[in-house]
Each structure stands twice: as structure tokens, then as C-alpha cells.
Design goal:
Layout (H helix, E strand, L loop, with lengths): L11 E5 L4 H12 L4 E3 L11 H11 L3 E4 L7 H6 L1 H21 L4 E5 L28 H21 L3 E6 L1 E3 L12 H15 L3 E5 L5 E2 L1 E3 H14 L6 E3 L5 E2 H12 L4 E5 L14 H7 L7 H15 L5
Parallel strand pairs: 1-2, 1-3, 3-4, 4-5, 5-10, 6-9, 7-12
Antiparallel strand pairs: 8-11
């Protein structure tokens, strides 16, 4: 079964998590590309952890394609506090959506995994072939493994039922409309809020987790939305695909960039009693380029500035 043989732009495309950070940018990208029927149900419309609710959603909208972005997710702190919840809810959402999409005759399923699925000590840059060569970093393993099960299900369903489900592995995203909640945000919005509020209060120092030695790769959210749209249109393979830039930055250097953006003049204090998370994260992005022509276009400094400008204009930070 191939999406190249159907006109998805004139059929219904259902995007779970479509009201969220990545979802709103993906809907904008699909609209720009000429998609006319995009459905983005909220949690009030459908509990994705309830199979009956998922079945009713698909029966109501009869989508030709489903893009599954919805997730129960957060940073290191949220993952440490909710390992069971994150595992259970993400596992159910993926399993029910793929199964009910198969039964409903969905012609293309796009599953969004996570970089947290990779083994803790994966050789850098991370290559898709290394995905199963070890256990994930402990603080986010339950979440990463739950999302990784969508790859197992996708490949099993492709082999048994001919179900066209693909699996994408995006790195950490950032950009306008990100989650800046101090309890659940990822590293870039968390740092931006910390420095902004410290600057507004006139604090003498900011305390950050770990020692800053770990590295991360970041992808601007609009680039990720474009990658998903390209995969929807051009990729029908069984193998997972990394989505990123192929460039990493140490958390210490990232903190300095954001400190300068914020104008904060105080010191950075590293709390080494807190975990660093996975030592390094940087992807081999050749498969995405080769299979569906994706290459990130936003420079990191420009993307950070666009994110910072949106954040400060939003009024989220408080002294």
C-alpha cells in the first residue's frame, strides 16, 4: 500500500496532538502545502488511552492518513516523577491508534517516536541501525521504550497486514509556542524561563541541573513539521528514520547562549547532585535526506532568537 497512489491533499488527514506545540506547526505546514481536510482532535474529543474512544474517533472522521504526535511527555524531572504513567499512557495511545487505524482502513500512518528510544551509550552520531543495541538512558527509558513499541507494531502490521505505517525519530524540538512550564518543559524553554525570571528579579545566580557536560541536538519546530509532511508524501519504508540537523551542542554552551539572549549578568551554578541525562545526542540524518529529501534549514542561533522573541512577547515569565 503506498501513499503515492492516493491524493492525500483532498482526503482527511487526522493529526493527534494537533493542538500542541508541534501539532500547530504541522497543521500550518500541511495547509501551506495544499491539504484541505485536517482534523486535530483534542483530549476532550477523544481519550487516546481508551480503545473504544479511538475507534469512535476514526469512525467519525474516516481519515485516509493519521499522524500520531500526541504524547505524555516532559523533561528529565517529569520523566523521573512519572515513569509508570509515561510508559502506560504512551504505550496505550500508540497501540490503540495503530490497531484501530488498521481496522478502519487508514491508508497511511505516521508514528512519531523519540530520540529517548536510543541506547544510553549509542555511538555518535546515532544511526538507526543502533536503535536496539542497548537500554535507553534510565531517566527517560519508560517513555522512550513505550514510543519505541510503535516501531515494533508498525513493522509487524506491515508484515502481516500490509499496513503502511512509518516511524520517525525527531530530536529535541524548540521554537515558538513551546511548553515553558517549569515542571514539564524541555531544556531550551526551561533555560529561557529560568534566565528570564532571574533577570527580572535581579538574582545573582541561576542554578542548573548537572554539570553541563552532556550534549544535545536541537531541531527548530518548523523544520520538523516540514520533515513530517515530506515523509507523509514520499516515504513508505519499514525502517525508522532520524529527523534532526546532525549537529550537537553541549548544555553548558547552550546555557551561555541563552544567558546572553536574556541579558542576565549573574553566575551560573551547576547542581551536580542532579542528573545530566544521556551523555550525548546527535543524529546521523542521511536516511531522511536520501529517502524523502529532508534537510534542516533553520540555523540554531536564528532559531533561538525567534524562540526567545516569541517567549518574551508572550508574557509567560514572571518575576
Amino acid at each position: 500500500m503506498s501513499s503515492k497512489k492516493i491524493d492525500l491533499k483532498n482526503r482527511t488527514v487526522l493529526v493527534t496532538g494537533g493542538a500542541g506545540f508541534l501539532g500547530r506547526h504541522l497543521r500550518a505546514e500541511l495547509t501551506r502545502r495544499g491539504y484541505k481536510k485536517i482534523v486535530a482532535p483534542t483530549h476532550k474529543d477523544c481519550d487516546l488511552t481508551d480503545q473504544t474512544s479511538v475507534r469512535a474517533l476514526l469512525k467519525k472522521h474516516r481519515p485516509a492518513a493519521v499522524i500520531h504526535l500526541a504524547a505524555r511527555v516532559g523533561g528529565i524531572g517529569a520523566n523521573r516523577a512519572n515513569p509508570g504513567l509515561f510508559y502506560y499512557q504512551n504505550l496505550l495511545m500508540g497501540a490503540f491508534l495503530i490497531e484501530e487505524s488498521r481496522l478502519a482502513g487508514v491508508q497511511k500512518f505516521v508514528a512519531l517516536g523519540t530520540i529517548c528510544a536510543y541506547p544510553k551509550f549509542t555511538p555518535v552520531p546515532f544511526s538507526e541501525k543502533d536503535l536496539w543495541n542497548g537500554y535507553p538512558e534510565e531517566t527517560n527509558a519508560p517513555y522512550g521504550l513505550a514510543k519505541k513499541m510503535m516501531l515494533v507494531q508498525s513493522q509487524g502490521y506491515r508484515d502481516q497486514y500490509g499496513f503502511n505505517s512509518i516511524f520517525l525519530l525527531p530530536v529535541n524540538l524548540y521554537g515558538p509556542h513551546d511548553n515553558f512550564d517549569p515542571e514539564t518543559s524541555h531544556v531550551i524553554p526551561a533555560l529561557m524561563r529560568k534566565f528570564r525570571e532571574a533577570s527580572l528579579r535581579g538574582d545573582k545566580h541561576v542554578t542548573l541541573w548537572g554539570n553541563g557536560s552532556s550534549s544535545r541536538e536541537f531541531l527548530f519546530v518548523e523544520d520538523c513539521a516540514r520533515a513530517i509532511a515530506l515523509a507523509l508524501e514520499r516515504y513508505d519504508g519499514r525502517e525508522p528514520v532520524n529527523i534532526g540537523t546532525g549537529r550537537e551542542i553541549k548544555v553548558r554552551a547552550l546555557a551561555e547562549k541563552i544567558r546572553k539572549l536574556s541579558g542576565f549578568k549573574g553566575k551560573i551554578v551547576w547542581d551536580t547532585s542532579k542528573p545530566n541525562g544521556q551523555p550525548r545526542r546527535c543524529l546521523n540524518v542521511e536516511r531522511a535526506r536520501r529517502e524523502f529529501g529532508f534537510k534542516a534549514s533553520m540555523s540554531f542561533d536564528r532559531g533561538l532568537k525567534k524562540t526567545w522573541d516569541w517567549f518574551t512577547a508572550s508574557g509567560i515569565a514572571r518575576a
